[in-house]
Amino acid sequence: MTDKLSSEVPPEGPPNLSRSAAAHAAAGARMKAFQQSETERILSACTQCGKCFEVCPMTGYSKAPAGADWKNADGKTVVGGVLAVLRREHGSPEALGWIAVCARSGVCVPACPENVDPLMMMRLARMTALGGRGGEKQIEMREDPDYFNRVRAFAKLQLSDDELKRWT
Amino acid sequence: MSEPITFWYGCNVLRHGDIIRSCLDILRALDFDALPVGGPDYCCGTVKDSNQTTAGGMATRTVDRFNALQREHVVAWCPSCHSHMHDFMGKANDTQFAMTYMVDLIHANRDKLAPLLVHPVPMRVLVHRHIGFNEHSAVNQIVPELLRMIPGVAVVEDDYLVPGYMCASLLAVPGAIDDMITGTMGAAKATRADAVVSIFHQCYRELCGLEAQGATQVYNYIHLLARSMGLAYEDEYKAWKKAGAGAADLIGAERIAKVGVQFFERALLPELKKRPTTGVR
Lengths: 168, 281
Description:
The complex is a heterodimer. By secondary structure, chain A is mainly alpha-helical.
């Protein structure tokens, strides 16, 4: 089979890409507004029944910070700590431990009797606890400083110069 | 007339040029005019959970690029990119395209695919499945169905599901990858599978070390579709992984010079040398 494309991205990139800083700022504002709206919806809808925590396959991996009574933690309390993070308050050690190990399995979504979407709750809580939405950083995440350079390097090893130019 | 689509392959699959090339050939054989884009310049931003300003900027830039291409459909390969577009990027940006996941597109065109799968691939395979992502695409059901279309392939039945949505989500959780390896190998042995077949590239990368150890054969589902279609792109990543410390000899000085010897030895070679711990659950 040929590797020649019937259509290609021009070497200079897609056409008509210029966007004003104001347009980018507007998109950023919409993202913030969406995240805030979802946060408020979740805070309003969640009854802290703890079902999402109970069905999560990752809870056993939590390395909750010192002082956490992980073995005796119950879902209602842990979820309450997650909601505290969403309110930009300090999360309990048990809640922060759970947020840190969420792997987006998604079994919490059908388990929730209130259609809260606990997967979204945990994603927003993670962003918040990492300090990604402003505010205090409450959990650590190992950032790989070589992440994108490694991707670029493997691309150079795997793709031809022509493929690099046309495909990336 | 071929339907023009944007094939958004993502970032990390750039370790696997053979998978990208095979996907393109498959899409063209299914009568799509596929335009491949990816790499850091098309990042979805999901890796930047700790900085939503940066993540949002990346998302907006990438959506702008897709809009500028003026193609009605973007077909995603990476589950992270696909779900991030659905959950966040598309909520804050004016997307002038529809999103489809690669597995769904192939499945929707399986009638066209079937006559192309002409070469037998005699193999008993265990599909490496995760719990997550299936709310976006029913990959755990569809990929085995696609594999069963290949003459000679037998897909074993097993109830082992790995937590998370793909292995990348487990990497930051101590012990989770080790448990995944133990569970996967246990399932492969219990079902007497010849090979473990991943759905996602990132899982493939983690599992490749098992073949390097001689524990089991490992493939991505695209590899088996491509083989049955007669596509013969070399899986260099697996060869490098199997070579481990000797990968530099396979890659060659000329290519290594493109990335820099020091960077290769510091940032790439450790990944190629890394081996999973194996065990039976």
